[in-house]
Amino acid sequence: MSHRYCSASHDGSWISWFLSLPMNEFLCRVPVDYIQDRFNLTGLDAQLGSQLSDALDLVLESEFDTECFQQVETDLDAAAKLYGLIHARYILTARGIDDMCMKYQRGDFGKCPRLYCHSQLMLPVGVSDRFGESHVKLYCARCRDIYQPQAHCAMLDGANFGRSFPHMFFMQLTELLPSPPKEQYTPRIYGFQVHATALMPPERATCSSCSSSSTTTGKALGIRRSKAATKVRPSSGEAIKQRSPMRRFSFTLNQ
Ligand SMILES: [Zn+2]
């Protein structure tokens, strides 16, 4: 039996046991009648092959006992994969969106770490629809970016949710769609806004500075990087690890 499956307690069915595992906190409960409907399993045999029938039996097991069951890890993995694939389909239905909405509003998926998103609630999303390709990410509808989840949920496969889920969610529940952030962080040094070229890697900044120096019309105070970059020579007989010379900046008015 796998260590991943050892520590959780459950109250009867395989689904209850599976959902009680800390790593599965993002998953909602798929109703048994949805799983039993063969129409909802269409095409899953392509991903599970001959394991589909046994995996389905295990997922639908109502008297699952971790103390005495003898399933090997491959059986549990197949059942987890089957549940995940069904889950990805279920959460795109009206019932599934309602179930996930309850978890969303409860804050089960966490809040956006970006300061200017002001603790916007997030939704799980996959960057692939196929199992085994990537772990789950969290999507913030305010800044429209994705983030790594907390460690205990970070190993959950992203295919449990798929790439479409959060976007379908907000298409159905438009009243929950947040407005875009009004604020954006501005890099400053001693209160002065840092020039755009100083925020780029050296090679890009040089090209950008050359091409845009004659056309820049900004009135804001900026900081322009000097071209000087003196090489540091190691002293003889002593190995000195060379490092990049410190970048120098001068305060200038953009013209
Ligand atoms: Zn955000």
TrEMBL record:
GO terms for cellular component: cytoplasm; protein kinase CK2 complex. InterPro entries: Casein_kin_II_reg-sub_N, Casein_kinase_II_beta-like, Casein_kinase_II_reg-sub. Residues 211-240 are annotated as: Disordered. It comes from the Eukaryota. Pfam families: CK_II_beta (PF01214). GO terms for molecular function: protein kinase regulator activity. Tetramer of two alpha and two beta subunits. Belongs to the casein kinase 2 subunit beta family. This is Casein kinase II subunit beta. It comes from Drosophila busckii.
